């Protein structure tokens, strides 16, 4: 018909449009699902530190225990970053002239702290207590990854609320003897479930998923 | 000062746990710089995270411009207030990804500080001649919370609003930050140089032209220095002045006994108490121990127990009057005559009062004879275990008579004891007046003002500022650059008591130390440091000065050990002194009775300290300004209080402005009607209308000192009022005063209670209650619950301020309060009952009731308020989207909403007052009482770490800890031996609005009054609300 | 003369006056759109848009500064925002009622008013949806009320009436929109075919979805329309019932009452009709559509208003009775306080407007007086707004006298409210300018000519023909091809 305002092909438009819309919607969901999740946004965060300190070297090759520097983790809610003093304990003798250690010596001299950059950040309204987790047999590695193999420390877990809840709802896979908490090479026993059950009974470990557990 | 160069000088502090020696003292630079480092978002986990920032000075300039400007009301005003309200913006809510967050560890780890674990140190808060022992919670050297020290007789582990709020005072950014000379910024060194030359002059003539004007104190060190001055400079003058003090009381007792004695009341021992215009539960000195004792004498465990009885005769409606079993309205200036009438009646009933012969003239009077007869007989029946007290407002002669009465009733040595005054400099009005006259005459060359603010609060007729301007060289030591600073030549910033070394002696003689929690933030000097410098010219640290004093006190045994002990305990054990046998001199008393002043004529004006800002020294403290006055519930103001009848007579209503004329002086201020106040009398709170208090206190309320003359310091007659046809906005925290016959506060007389012990729970009848949802099982684990005893609660409001301090609650300002947006998690409801002329008052602390069937939880669309298995009603701020539906559906209306970002633009320095264990709330979220969940978590974690259950009493909520009456109990309801469980098992226990089946975890113990059977009045309304169903 | 017989056969007066031919119908309605834009339109549009600016401004400031700029406080956590929300949702109801329920009941008189009633519904619901959106404290996380997957592993609280609201109103909006659009398709086609300019042709054409009025299209169309009507019908009842649960499920005295759902629905229809009336009267005057929106229609609507007004009045009475009968002191106080408390005036305004005003419609004189019904319709809308105000104000005095408060709106409250009217009228004016405010095709259905019997008497054809067929027939009779019929057949 001459009066028709639209050419023939427009008849196919509706299905095409429909398909397009579907693609866009699903695509959008997928996009946010992946790029919006802390797994993408937070994991792998590896800021440049003022001192080129290698956990791999100290904790790995030299085999220092985590608690040599982070000495209050079992007593305090916060895992303390060591004072410059701790570095100087060794580095007055070891590599006293090293270029890399300049900021440390400077701090020691001036008395101004070294401005380390925080890697594992929790929001202010989430209250995480190191002491109670460690004493309940949750190893460092569960949250911080195998730091012994990291030259520069980076975030390996999303530290998202759902991630916390996963463990709070079923901590069994992550439990280990309290003596092993800093051991990065610890191998879970065959009967982990069995061990966990027993371990929880003995130490009365029943984490819960109440809001009040973390939010005050 | 020494600690500037070495970061951690071991000044020999000791902390409470274990009492190890040595702790870090952080330097002013460190702290303030660290503060300036803070961004609104990040909060430091360890104080030293903040170190290492440039230009402290510049920061101060930027943050607190000189002479902080006053600002208009509205948003700007509110912003500034929020700044004083102390809290920080909450990170996550700002919601931007990965703010780079710095960790700044210690350079050298201080001994025995574990980052993230708070420590407690003992100290003392001096206030006038009183001293309150305190424990200060400190996070990495940053004091954040004050509690009472159990070992100290004047606080006994409890506290009051002034103590609680002094924490905010420490971080007040309006505090003076530099020495000034003629208001121009100067420095300590030039001041030192200047004074040393003058000192030589004064040494020549024995200090003839030298005068020291201090605040009243009871401190060994200050006393030693005062003595030293008098010795080294025989011609110099040292006078203490307080606008409000117990001067009359001391004078009266001296008059009666001929000795300088300190009265020590033990209200716990008194079965019958008669208060003559004494607000001993609130605004008199030593109110903490008073409330403790009063409550002890009143606490009931069952209907079989007995309780004390309180008679109050007063003009203003005081907190004490509001909890009295019988209250008699007597104009303040009529009290002496009334007291004499009581004495006469006692004599008539056979009590022999020494010097009582002079009473005959008072036998016939216009007061309610029956009332007097009953009171007298009641006192006599309780002979030995009774107590008569009179207020600081009353003249010395009356106090002499009261001393005689107490002795006659055998109270001496039991409910009242006398101790020889030591180490005390009492306020001396006449001495002060004399000094001012000499200043006026130009005889004073140098005037050293150690604290105080005489330009503002000296009697108006003395015209202090004119006199001050005639002094050629004046020095003013003060926390703020206040009204007096403006007129003085030199100003030295004063160190807050939490920053300085000092000592004090409590009323019972107990010695305690004041030890700094932190180095002076703004480099101030303590009064002993300046006093010492003034008379020696040597700049010595307070630490040395105080230790020197204590070397003489701690003679026995090794000084250092004993000293550490004192620092650890905060008090010197066993330093309380025994009573002295006071002998009342008959003729003196007789003379006193003869000289009892007559009641003033015409409209009477009465001055009293404000329950909020005291005499004005706390005017720049937002927490106190916003604390509702116990009876009026007003915030941020001091209208003239007027009785209902008198108001009607002048046809005045709340908020009407009047022109008040008092012997030649006049003041324009609004009125507020207080039912139950004596007629023909206006009551004015002191301490408002400051012009240079700081950004918070400036221009708040009306300066009533302008009407106050040395002739009539407390009560003046012949006032005239003219109604101006304008009104003034007054912000009351409670608009409606009647309980509308609802069974909210359930009360009965002791007799009724004995008749029907279960009256309280049975007061409301309702059909069987059934919940729509299946109810969770609370039989396992900890189940937290609270009980509040309305019989012992006096409604002082210490709990409310303690809560504010513990939970980072912002203040919102007058405008917002008048809009009904105050943020207090704990409020004290005040209801009037009975007729408008002589109503009774009931107080009820109300906070989140933690309902097991919480209506708020069901309606929140995002599940931001939930219940946990320990029965706590949780509020998860970071999940809240702010529909306010929960608040609408809360029958108790205890939820608070952040209508604005009340913490916006807050200088970082204030953030140091924040409790790091409590999230600071952002704009648009709901908040409410959490039963101090941070304390619960801490206790649970500690228990877990040491592998045990939380013990009863291990968790104390902030309100409970502060409460001097011990009216609040908290604990685990599943523990059959817990105190709270026991309390809740009492038959007075009831849940407010239980008929709604909300099942609150906070229950009340019904209020029991103990009226004398012969004075029982029919109380229609209260009777109504006592039987309503 | 055929017309007379027509009249004889029908007791009802003709639904459409002036005996227009199909062509005339199209002409009369379409000319409103095609003709030159009236000065008045520009004037009104200017007003509406400036009000809309007010809305944008005040909401902007709200988001910037916080909810505190409103008069809210504790205890009054809800104020104008919720009042307006409920009121606007209520307004919407008439549209759906008219288009869906009356359609199912074969109330053929609805055809003259259903189009713009539906439009009104949609615009009202848009205004309504605005308020719950902006009244929250943290608007930037409002999506948390939706059950979306998230890293918090959190669901919304399905017990909360606010959540039900979101679903209810959302559904309602979607269905109304579809329903309205489907109804518009044939008219889009008409406009497309009448359009002179190519742009218009294409614009209308897109929405016409290639409609050419063939019988199969008509068949599907009628079916779709019927189904949508079926779906919309329960919504009329459900939406406001659920909105009422915002109050009814609470424990507040004066809110916690089972009468709310029916009473809200009645009220909603009441206010909805009032709004239709207001708009209808104006439109028919300005665009000379007296023949299409006849006195007959108006009178019928007045009767509906009388009825619903009585229902509402009854509800008010019942509330008081229940409060008294419950013996619950808090309930009793709440209602006594409504009528005699500090906000007594709002209560009596409500009674006067909602209960007394409609009583006039007992009299035909009032029912048929344009002036009176116009005034009445406005008063009723005011009254219904106050009904919600009274409910919200109940918050000022609940259980604990110590917590009693006041509520006074601020200038921002007012600006937001006026602004919402701006939004509404902006949309509505655009609608009457670009779309046929009366359903052209449907009107033809109710014309006498559309009735198979009115020409071919005696031939026992009982089933109604599609209007299209009739129209063709008509076209033949009148001889000249009617452009208007082009698409619609």
- Series of secondary-structure elements of chain A, N-terminal to C-terminal: HHHHHHEHHHH
How many distinct beta strands of chain C? 0
| Structural class by SSE content of chain A | mainly alpha
Which class of secondary structure composition applies to the elements of chain C? mainly alpha
Radius of gyration of chain A, in Å, reads 26 Å
Description:
The complex is a heterotrimer of chains A (216), B (1029) and C (489). Chain A has ten helices and one strand; from the N terminus they run H-H-H-H-H-H-E-H-H-H-H. Chain A has helices spanning 13-35, 38-41, 55-61, 66-69, 84-91, 102-110, 130-135, 140-144, 161-169, 192-203; one strand at 116-117. Chain A is extended. The relative contact order of chain A is 0.12. With 1029 residues, chain B is an alpha/beta fold. Helices cover 28% and strands 19% of the residues of chain B. In chain B, a hairpin with a 2-residue loop joins strand 3 (130-139) and strand 4. In chain B, helix 6 runs parallel beside helix 26 (798-806), helix 9 packs across helix 14 (396-408) and helix 12 (335-348) runs parallel beside helix 14 (396-408). The longest helix of chain B is centred in the first third of the chain and has 17 residues, at 188-204. Chain B is globular, with a radius of gyration of 28 Å. The N and C termini of chain B lie far apart (69 Å). Helices cover 70% and strands 0% of the residues of chain C. Chain C contains 19 helices and no strands. Chains B and C meet through strand 32, helix 28, helix 29 and strand 36 of B and helix 6 and helix 11 of C.
Element layout with pairings:
The complex is a heterotrimer of chains A (216), B (1029) and C (489).
Chain A: H1 13-35, H2 38-41, H3 55-61, H4 66-69, H5 84-91, H6 102-110, E1 116-117, H7 130-135, H8 140-144, H9 161-169, H10 192-203
Chain B: H1 2-5, H2 28-37, H3 56-63, H4 75-85, H5 91-94, E1 102-103, E2 119-127, E3 130-139, E4 142-148, H6 161-170, E5 180-181, E6 184-185, H7 188-204, E7 210-214, E8 217-218, H8 220-232, E9 237-240, H9 247-257, E10 261-265, E11 272-276, H10 287-296, E12 309-314, H11 319-323, E13 326-329, H12 335-348, H13 369-381, E14 386-390, H14 396-408, E15 416-420, E16 424-425, H15 429-440, E17 446-450, H16 454-457, H17 464-469, E18 473-478, H18 483-487, E19 490-493, E20 502-505, E21 511-514, H19 527-536, H20 542-553, H21 559-569, H22 586-594, E22 603-608, H23 622-625, E23 634-635, E24 640-642, H24 644-649, E25 656-662, E26 665-673, E27 681-685, E28 715-727, E29 731-732, E30 747-749, H25 750-755, E31 784-789, H26 798-806, H27 814-818, E32 827-833, E33 840-846, H28 855-859, E34 865-867, E35 873-875, H29 885-888, E36 896-897, H30 908-911, E37 926-927, H31 933-945, H32 958-962, E38 968-972, H33 979-984, E39 989-990, E40 1002-1005, E41 1007-1009, H34 1020-1027
Parallel strand pairs in B: 7-9, 7-17, 11-12, 11-14, 12-13, 17-18, 18-19, 22-27, 24-26, 30-41, 31-40
Antiparallel strand pairs in B: 2-3, 3-4, 5-6, 5-19, 8-16, 10-15, 20-21, 22-28, 23-29, 24-27, 25-26, 25-28, 31-38, 32-33, 34-35, 36-37, 39-40
Helix pairs in contact in B: 6-26, 7-19, 8-19, 9-14, 12-13, 12-14, 14-22
Chain C: H1 2-9, H2 22-34, H3 39-65, H4 80-104, H5 111-134, H6 161-194, H7 198-208, H8 215-248, H9 260-286, H10 295-326, H11 329-340, H12 344-359, H13 364-367, H14 370-393, H15 411-434, H16 440-446, H17 452-455, H18 467-478, H19 485-488
Helix pairs in contact in C: 2-16, 3-15, 4-5, 4-8, 4-9, 4-14, 5-6, 5-9, 5-15, 6-7, 6-8, 8-9, 9-10, 9-14, 10-11, 10-12, 11-12, 12-14
